[in-house]
Amino acid sequence: MTGADELTHEELLQRLQSVAEGSVKRFGLPDSVQVKLINVSENATYKVEDGTGRKWALRVHREGYHSRTAIASELAWLASLRETGGVATPVPVRGLDGEYIQTLAGEGLPNPRNVVLFDWENGAEPERTDVAGFELLGETAARMHAHVRKWRRPVWFERHSWDFETSLGSRPHWGYWKNGMGMTSEAMEAFTETVALIEQRLEAFGKSPDRFNLVHGDMRLANLLMDGSTVKVIDFDDSGFSWLLYDCATTVSFFEHTPEVPELLQAWVRGYRRVGALSPEEENEIATFVMLRRLLLVAWIGSHSETELAQSMGVDYTRESIPLCEKYLSAYGRPNVSTVAAPVPKKGVLGRLFG
Questions:
Q1: Is 64 exposed, middle or buried (0-12, 13-18, 19+ CB in 10 A)?
Q2: Distances (CA, A) of 285 to 163, 205, 255, 268, 340
Q3: Are residues 61 and 136 in the same domain?
Q4: What is each CA distance from 282 to 21, 23, 81, in whole angstroms?
């Protein structure tokens, strides 16, 4: 049998399509439903329609990324957020056997895949220029963070940890940033120094539970739906344990270098403070989390070069990261300088960094 890593991208998509189409029976959907691929990232996500207007989102999980227990943990958090956290999240559908997670073998695939079906969520992706929308995103994140600080997780709860070592360090979930697309000596020098500074600042920032806890981990605009004044948060596949402010950084994923970012981040902070507390020290460290996310995405693009999203960003994303690194290093100090661990006390630092 051919291993998944030996298949071409197109061959893998064909086999995953077969798994997706075969799984709908497990959920009691008719054979006549249409199953259309809408996104490939860590997983393959499909839109399922039955011809009468009913729609669902079907997710075929990547092999080896999450265990069945980790997927069940994600679904447990989704339910708790909906029920007690005041956050709109996707609603999973039980299979005919009463289980949310269905496991199916696929012809030509070495191992079975886990599949989850969700009710379709209406809404539109927020606009990058929508300042008021970013305030709502900040409010939503604050409610999520307030929830996790109080939530008693099941004893079996299991999710990835997104700390320095598993992001930019020696055990990265998404590959090494040094393997990003289009790496040059200039990029390597800037990124190396920036990674060292990020590590030092995060160590000083600490991992107390009020700062490091369960997060969505990928609150980029593609994973948010605006339905009137309601923000719906979808795709919790990267949820895990990290710094809470990482959720702020992910809202500007893939466009961190553009002129509108300072105003959007400041709007997020205003919205957050309507619901939760955010100290000046924490606000001043947002730039560190933006840079953490930026270089983590450089790594993701390099390790997911077969995807359309990675190909659309590619070498340009690496190149455009260099001046962002230089601004960050200039504002926060070079690594191994005695003042590096101190928060930046000046106002408007986000504007200087990302404007």
A1: exposed
A2: 15, 8, 19, 14, 12
A3: no
A4: 46, 45, 24
The radius of gyration of the chain's CA atoms, rounded to the nearest angstrom, is 21
Partner residues linked to 224 by β-bridges: 233
Residue that terminates a domain, selected from 119, 142, 167 = 119
pTM: 0.91
Is 200 found in the same domain as 139?
A: yes
Q: Which of 99, 119, 139 is the last residue of a domain?
A: 119
Instruction: Say if 124 falls within a structural domain.
Output: no
Q: Tell me whether residue 126 is in a domain.
A: no
| Rounded Cα–Cα distance for residues 130 and 136 (Å) | 10
CA 11 to chain centre: 26
For the record, the structure tokens of 274 come out as 């309507």
Token pair 């989704």: residue: 78
Task: Decide: 246 and 292 in contact? Cβ < 8 Å.
Answer: yes
Contact 224, 137 (CB under 8 A): yes
Encoded amino acid at 192, one letter = T
What is the 8-class DSSP label of residue 184? -
Stated length of the chain: 355
In terms of C-beta density within 10 A (0-12 exposed, 13-18 middle, 19 or more buried), how is residue 153 classed? middle
Written as one letter, the residue type at 310 is A
How many domains are there within the chain?
2
Whether residue 277 sits in one domain with residue 193:
yes
My answer on whether 329 and 249 are in the same domain is yes
Task: Provide the domain limits for residue 49.
Answer: 4-119
74 and 182 together in one domain: no
CB 244 within 8 A of CB 212: yes
Kindly report, residue by residue over 149-199, the tens digit of the pLDDT. 999 999 999 999 999 999 999 999 999 999 999 999 999 999 999 999 999
Q: Residue 94 maps to which CATH number?
A: 3.30.200.20
Could you report how far apart the first and last alpha carbons of the chain are, in Å? 52
pLDDT in tens, 263-287: 999 999 999 999 999 999 999 999 9
